[in-house]
Amino acid sequence: MYRSSMAISPTPADFAPLLFAGEWEAALDAAVTLGYEAIEVSVRDPDDPVVISCNEAMREHGLQLSAIATGQSFYSDGWALTTGERGVRTRLDERMLRIVDMAAPWKALVVIGGVRGTLTGSESDQADQYRRAVESVQYYAQHAQPFDVSLAVEPINRYETNLLNTIEQGLQFIDDVGLDNVGLLADTFHMNIEEADLAASLRSAGDRLLHVQFTDSNRLAAGWGHIDFPELASVLHEIGYDGYLSTETLPVPDSRAAARQAIEFFTSL
After folding, report:
1. Annotated active-site positions, please?
2. Taking Cα atoms as reference points, which of 177, 232, 243, 238 lies closest to residue 210?
3. Which of 61, 91, 123, 206 has a CA that sits 20 to 30 A from residue 54's CA?
């Protein structure tokens, strides 16, 4: 069985597929009761007292911090790696470095997902935006290196962004960043939309695969849709993946039921 992780938000969030959003005490209680080993937190401001309290309580509960998702800076504040507005970039850079600092004691991953934003304007404009995203990730990764923290780039489906939709595009972006502590996060919900062959795409990530979210085709907990997870679990075994299986799902029918379904399904693989 792979190590298990559950994606939550300590604070209320505009991003929907998170369990126990704004109810971190209930989230940690459920994680311990259900047998999760780690929590993946979605963070807007790492200095928020609620985030700090959740971070401290995870240790008290014997849980690990597997990853920190950073998309709330885009979904809630509109801050993106692609922006050319200097003031926004400065604020976002400062926040992302503080998130790296939060990850450091845990050696947790920092996720580069929705925070990268979207590409807009002319072809030249979009090339500049892509370059800014690459340079930003380089900057954060260089800050993270002394702490043994890695960044995980997450391809996201076309209905949410036009920047890095497929595993292939994610791997190219990682090559463009060119630093050893930058790898890939594979989310099966997005893969189900974008990849012609989920198993082949997952296999192509190889040793650059740092984190996996097993979420079903309908964005519900694994086993409540039509994705062939046993096949994908076989690929993970084949490539020697030793990271977490995480559930980043809609809280349907409620957070606790979704969390229970996910870990019971993970255990069956």
Report:
1. 154, 248
2. 243
3. 91
